[in-house]
Amino acid sequence: MVEGFTDHLPETERELALARQRIAELEAQLTAATSENAAREENRLLQQLAQRLEGMRRLDHSILAANSLESLAEMALNYVVQLLPCFRAAISTVDLEAGTAVVLALYSEQQTALSRKSYPIEETYISPIRSNPYFIIDQPDQSPSEGVRQLYSEGIRSILVVPLRAENNLVGLLNVHSVDSNYFTEERIQIACEIANQIAIGIHKTALSDALARYVQRMEILSAIDLGLIQRGSTKALVERTLKELRRIIPCERIGVGIIQHSTQEVIIYTSSFDNQSELPEGTRIPIPPGLFEQFNDHHILLVNNLHLSDNPTFRQLVKEGYQSNLQVLLRGESESIGILGLSSTQLNFFTLEHQEIVSEVATRLAIALHQMQLATALERYAEELEQRVAERTSELQLSKDKIEAILHNSLDGILLIDRDLRIQQANPAVRRLLAVESEKKELVNLLELIHPDEAHRIQESVERAIVEQNFSPVEVQAFPANGQPIDVEFSFGYIPGDGLVSTIHDITARKQTEAALREALIQEKELANARSRLISVTSHEFRTPLTIILSAADSLANYRARLTDTEVSEKLDRIRQNVQRLTRLMDDILELTRIQLRRIEFKPRMDDFDALCYSLIEEFTVIPENVDRLIYSGSGSPVLVLFDPRLMRMVVSNLLSNALKYSPSDQAVDVSLSTDAEHLNLRIQDRGIGIPPEDLKRLFEPFHRASNVGTIKGTGLGLSIVKEIVEMHGGQITVESKQGEGSTVRVLLPLMTG
Question: Fewest 10 Å CB contacts: which of 122, 468, 713, 740?
Fold first, then answer.
């Protein structure tokens, strides 16, 4: 058996050798496959590293080429998306003190709340941003932040936040969002941190470049102001150039300079620059709210980051025009503030500390410029006045050389010679008689000492006309002779070149008295005739209908009382009572109109708030149930000071509101608006009622005239006549535009006198 086993041994060894050979081949194949896989993985890693290095290199070049933070962020975000595929990414600047971030660039596959320009940073994430190189949120649905939970509702499952730091300063944030849970591996975090480091360097470099550019611009503005002072050009042109340049540094939508008028407690807008139409143009007078100056800090700066929270009327107007933040700096003179430099932005929290420093520097130079130019203007004015006085004194020396004997002793009228200062040099006896001047005086008194003080300026004006026109210039004034008895005289002045003036004096006291008596009699006669004519017209036309109704009802009661029921008797008595009330209203309106036309009504105008008057009347009307929600008022938003009689103007507005409501359907509203321009107040009342026929518009303000389409609507036809008289007493105008069936628009225009 051993022998048989031995016989098979070579064959077994061959098989074993073959097996070993096969195993060696398999091991060689396995080793080759493993090496190939390793090579592929190594190649993939090398390609990925090369891609990252190429991306970082291109990012470096983009940073060097970027000319703004937005363009830098857009280019950097492209590399983030290429090297780190994600659902959404954003690069933002950040202000942790204010708790806000501003998006510079955004990549997103769908709309997100992050797409808005500015968003708040919640307190929960301020500490991680300050202290960590990065942090990850892998469970957004469990985050205490409402904003992060909102991102979860949009499909976000993993968030990476990398603070952007340069030279240990936080300059922004890189946010990367993924729809995959636990998406951010160590490798991806490393890629994000590398890109964030380059972005931070770029933002820091761009910020330094921008700061340097702004510093150069600041120096240019300050130099321009100093140059304007040296050249002593137009103050307004200098301020306008300064505001234009300042807007280049601080890109706000509105900027202006107001001059403080301490006597009236107002700020007058001197000049301004803004993008859109405004209700606060140049020349606008703005009342200074109480306590305004106490709100400025020690550096004379007032910063309002949210205008919606301010009760300042001017700020409320800015809010209406779309502005949200405001920066003001006082322009200080030697002893008090002379103006305000103000900037407004449509963004909340727009003005930074750097902005405040820039505006403060410019305000200091502008204040010096305005103050020095005011001093220079005053000095020039004083020099001109001094030259004029020197010229006058020189003329006096020339006039003292020769005196012309020009007095005619036999004239019934006074004739005198006076110098340019109106001192009487020579006079004939008639002058001494009229003015009761002592004859032994050679040099008489100054002529103005014998004239009523209120009329002295008329004498001076007449003298100036005689000198300029080289012709006789008459003037009538009241004189006060030395004996104290006033007389009316007529002076006529003629210029004698190089020697003074010659004047004639004629006593016109008797003539004046006669003229005054005749004028008064004529006025009274006209007033009586007009009053008589109006009374007759009213009696014959307006009183006839109610009296006829009263008489008819009374006759019925007298003749048929026994056959009338109690209800019929009550109806006839009511008709009598209503028409008696109508006659009473008609008589009251006639008397009121007559007193106004004869100017026998008490007229006491004063500076008051017209906006408050309108508010008060509209509140009174809307208390009545049928008038609720029928008056829509658009006021000015701030006090409108106008010179008017509150009692009379209340009659005007009340009458116009009553007419608008009376002639409009009960379901139609009446629009009331109050606005102002540089010179006028404009009250506009528009109804949607029956309107006025064209043929009636021409006679609308005539007493007792009513439109042909009023039907049974009650009225006397005197209301608009009274309104027109009162408006014209205030120096205003009233106009009516109407289209039958579509409504009417009444406009009252009053002069705007603001002290």
Answer: 468
